[in-house]
Specification:
This protein is of the alpha/beta class and 180 residues long. The protein is built from five helices and six strands; from the N terminus they run E-H-E-H-E-H-E-H-E-H-E. The protein has a six-stranded parallel β-sheet with strand order 3-2-1-4-5-6, sandwiched between helices. Helix 2 links the parallel strand 2 and strand 3. The longest helix has 25 residues. It is globular, with a radius of gyration of 16 Å.
C-alpha cells in the first residue's frame, strides 16, 4: 500500500541527534518519509522546519511510554505501510563498576525497553506484511568494555532479542537485523 505521499515509511527512534539524525537524513535524501521519534521537542521542531512535511514527521515523547508508542505507531500507520523501523534511541552510562547506581541501570535499560515496545507495536501494525527492523546494538553487545558493564549487558540483551525475533519470524516476510 503506498503512503499518502507515495514514499516508503521509516520510523527512526532517537532521530534528533547523532546516529539517529544521520540515518534520518540519509533516508530522506533517498526519498523516504521518516517518522522521527525523540524526547527533544526543541530539536524536533527544528527538524520539522528543516525538512518538508512529506519527508519528516516528528513524534515527541518517551520511547518507553507504552501509550505514546501505541498512539505514535497507529498515527504513522495511517500514512501507509511501515517499511522500516530503526530502533536507535537509548542512553549509555559509562562508569567504573563501583559507581553505578539504580538510575544508571534504569538509563541503560530504557533503550532496551523502548526497542521492545516499538518492535511489538510495529509488528502489530504491519501484520504479516513485509517490514524490516534494524536494531542499533553497538559492538558493546559482543564484548565487554572497561567502564561499560551495564551498557554492555543491555546491548547483549538487544542481540538476544533480535536473535529470538529472527527465529519467531523465520516463516514470514518480516526481517530483523542487528547493526553494530
Amino acid at each position: 500500500m503506498p503512503t499518502t505521499t507515495g514514499k516508503k515509511i521509516a520510523i527512526v527512534t532517537g532521530s534528533a541527534l547523532g546516529l539517529g539524525y544521520e540515518l534520518a537524513s540519509q533516508l530522506i535524501a533517498n526519498g523516504w518519509l521518516v517518522a522521527g521519534v525523540d524526547f527533544n521537542a526543541e530539536r524536533q521542531a527544528e527538524l520539522t522546519a528543516q525538512w518538508p512535511d512529506d519527508s519528516y514527521r516528528a513524534f515527541v515523547g518517551d520511547i518507553t511510554d507504552e501509550a505514546f508508542v501505541k498512539e505514535s505507531v497507529a498515527d504513522i500507520a495511517t500514512l501507509g505501510h511501515i517499511d522500516l523501523l530503526i530502533n536507535n534511541a537509548g542512553q549509555p552510562s559509562f562508569k567504573v563498576p563501583t559507581a553505578y547506581e539504580a538510575a544508571d541501570v534504569d538509563k541503560c535499560l530504557k533503550g532496551l525497553k523502548g526497542m521492545i515496545l516499538w518492535t511489538v507495536e510495529t509488528l502489530k501494525a504491519c501484520g504479516e506484511q513485509n517490514v524490516k527492523i534494524a536494531q542499533i546494538m553497538s559492538t558493546a553487545a559482543t564484548r565487554g568494555n572497561a567502564n561499560e558493564s551495564v551498557y554492555c549487558a543491555t546491548k547483549a540483551a538487544v542481540k538476544a532479542l533480535s536473535d529470538g525475533l529472527r527465529i519467531d519470524l523465520v516463516d514470514t516476510p518480516l526481517r530483523v537485523t542487528n547493526i553494530k
